[in-house]
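B., you asked whether I could sanity-check this one before it goes into the benchmark set. Here's the sequence:
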Amino acid sequence: MLESFFIDTRPVQAVAGSYQIFLVILSYLVASFASYAALTLSHQMVNAATNTIQRRVTHWGGAFAMGSGIWAMHFLGMLAYQMDMFVDYDWGLTFLSLIIAVAISYVVLWLVSLPRLPIIRLLIAAILLGFGICAMHYTGMAAMKMDATLRYVKDLFVLSVVIAITASGAAIWIAFTLSRHSGQYQAQLRGVAALIMGAAICGMHFTGMAAAVFVPFADCRLGVNQGLDFMVIAVAFMATILLGLFTFTV
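And here's what the prediction gave me:
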């Protein structure tokens, strides 16, 4: 089974693409925005929620805002990678990757709301959530419909998993710590932490993209101008509206 997933060397006929810098930068900004929303909502859950209903609404709203932001970052990062061959997306798998992202975010906010976060719980959570982030990313990659076989370079694939686990642990610890911080520079610390978390999320994504090897079929269809601009705008717009709504209403 692993033989159909990994590849030892990149064949000479493998398709190589290039990144649109604007979309790469946009994906980082969205990831940072999602991280800031998560940190804001985790603080809200710990310090401002006064009853069970308010706590649940904040929890689910935060999970949806954070999850949609992380998902939008990954989707923008995928769309930023331009190849000559025609690429479409399976909307069922794309939606599944969004559900995974929201579920991951729900667990993160739940962990942050706990009164204590011992090191063993942090390590276990980092591993589980790291695998969850990888599941979201590689489900999104599996949604790509094209006249090519998708394989992964094992070393870079493993590195992406390590980055995901490390980023998850750092994100949980930062969110847990800042949610209990009420000092003068709370907003500034939250902003710096969001930029770091955004970089970690992007690091996992683009490492996973670097691991991907696209081997085209003999009759591979070409399609440089595929009209995906609307999809890019829709994803960015949805992420901005959701994250803005849940960030600035807390």
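One thing to flag: The chain has seven helices and seven strands. Otherwise nothing jumped out at me.
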